[in-house]
Design a protein that fits this description.
33% of the residues lie in helices and 23% in strands. It contains 16 helices and 22 strands. Strand 2 and strand 3 form a beta hairpin. The chain is globular.
Length: 489
């Protein structure tokens, strides 16, 4: 029997039914963009998310038929608080991109040597408790988006998150995660009532019933979206890596079951993550982050007006053999891995009187590809693992010029995922293993094969910018806004 997956991203949500042969049916999508009432604030409507989750889930089931289990995958660290008596959110949810707690992050580091990033749950929940009276009620319950979706689908009988989501909240250290617990010291320091936090459960395993859906199928997996994408592309052996290029970019690699020494950012700007957990065993990995990927193409469309739509970037870039020396650093809101320079800014270098629209478009695609190579370099240095080939999904994975530039910049074969969003497959595999649709995760992921493979072209070296030129361009983009560049989380 099949598995229903509900996948809630940053700007929209989807549901689909995955068959035992890994084919996907009943795919249903609804846009649900966050709002930004003021610069730096990013909020989402929990009620609108609840209603949309139920609509897409019912629509997928109407096509896909009965399912044996439900898997939930979602954006990570976004935070919501609701009243347990009626399931009503007490305030807008705070999106992971929300920066209202930058000051608190700085204060905690200076005063208590506690390191939080504003994109983590910890200071978001602290802010909600300080500023919303109902969030301090004994009836208040809190969670990340996976927790909220599980609560909605179970008619609020489930209040849980899994270790892959808990690990990026800032509320649990590696020792606590090994026990599937929150860090008592951190929770107490932030004055958070432990009773409002969800229980931490293994990624693979039944946590309750989806009473809001026909047949009340078991909810059998909760998992973070990036980890789900890694699993969905078969990344469950040491050194297996995937990169997702959507609005932003994430590169994740599977490392194994050895527990890292800490969860803080490492020397080359990557972070340890829990890929998934099964029983008492945590499977670890590492994550590298690109703040802007596809949003650079959207900039060409919506702000510069040089493209009619994002899809046109491929064909227009292909009209020239190279960027003719033009280099673009995609740092519209700063640089993450490996630099973590919030004051870096987008930089366009090498312009001449002969530079055309096509050269600039190609330079933007190649710049995103070089940032992908930066993430891979940092990941290999921090983990000591060698990545033989890179698996790629996300909207940009269908851009031929970009994927070839990525293969050339990384000097690795690039496997293009058959599904634009591999998160659906990953959550299905994890939930399906829990209820016996597949006997093991190895069996499930053996069904995955790439749509195509892009091989690096040595002949491209003469027309592409070198990595040395790239690093010089990045150097020139950095420190443009010194006050922001001085921030360190």
């Amino acid at each position: 029997m099949s598995v229903l997956v509900v996948d809630v991203g940053t700007t929209g949500l989807r549901a689909a039914v995955v068959r035992p042969d890994a084919t996907i049916v009943g795919f249903t999508y609804e846009p649900l963009p966050p709002t930004s009432p003021f610069a730096g604030l990013v909020e989402f409507d929990g009620v609108a998310m609840r209603d949309a989750v139920l609509r897409v889930a019912h629509a997928a089931l109407a096509v896909g038929g009965p399912v044996r289990a439900v898997g939930i995958t979602a954006q990570r660290a976004s935070t919501i608080v609701w009243d347990s008596r009626d399931g009503t959110p007490v305030a807008p949810g705070l999106g992971w991109q929300d920066l209202r707690t930058v000051g608190e992050c700085i204060r905690w580091k200076q005063e208590r040597n506690l390191v939080f990033a504003p994109n983590q749950t910890a200071t978001k929940l602290e802010w909600l408790r300080k500023n919303v009276e109902a969030a301090r009620s004994p009836f208040a319950r809190a969670g990340t988006v996976d927790t909220w979706v599980a609560a909605v689908l179970s008619n609020f009988s489930v209040h849980a998150t899994d270790s892959s989501n808990a690990a990026v909240t800032g509320l649990a250290d590696h020792a606590a995660l090994a026990r599937h617990e929150w860090s008592t010291d951190i929770v107490q320091a932030l004055d958070i009532d432990p009773a409002m936090l969800p229980r931490i459960v293994p990624t693979i395993g039944v946590v309750g019933q989806a009473h809001a859906l026909p047949g009340a199928p078991p909810i059998a997996a909760l998992v973070g979206d990036q980890q789900s994408s890694l699993v969905g592309q078969g990344g469950i052996v040491a050194g297996a890596a995937k990169a997702t290029f959507g609005t932003g970019g994430m590169l994740d690699v599977y490392a194994g079951t050895a527990t890292p020494k800490h969860l803080a950012r490492t020397k080359n700007g990557t972070f340890p993550i829990v890929v998934y957990s099964q029983g008492d065993t945590l499977h670890w990995g590492s994550e590298a982050i690109m703040l802007t990927a596809g949003s650079n193409v959207e900039w060409l469309v919506n702000d510069l007006g040089v493209l009619p739509d994002a899809q046109a970037s491929d064909a227009i870039a292909a009209t020239v053999e190279s960027s003719d020396g033009v280099v673009y650093v995609p740092a519209l809101i700063g640089l993450a891995t490996p630099h973590w320079d919030y004051g870096a800014r987008g930089t366009l270098l090498g312009l001449t009187r002969g530079t055309t629209r096509a050269h600039v478009v190609r330079a933007v695609l190649e710049g995103i590809a070089h940032r992908g190579a930066d993430l891979l370099d940092a990941t290999e240095r921090d983990t000591g693992l060698h990545v033989e080939r890179l698996k790629v999904d996300g909207g940009m994975s269908r851009n031929v010029v970009f994927t070839q530039a990525l293969a050339d910049a990384t000097c690795r074969p690039v496997d293009i995922c058959r599904e634009t969003e591999a998160t659906t497959l990953g959550a299905a595999f994890l939930a399906g293993v829990a209820v016996g649709v597949w006997n093991t995760l190895d069996e499930a992921t053996s069904l995955v094969a790439p749509l195509r493979t892009v091989e690096p072209q040595s002949a491209a070296a003469a027309s592409n910018i070198s990595r040395a030129q790239w690093h010089e361009a990045v150097h020139r983009s950095r420190g443009w806004i010194p006050a922001l560049s001085a921030l360190d989380f």
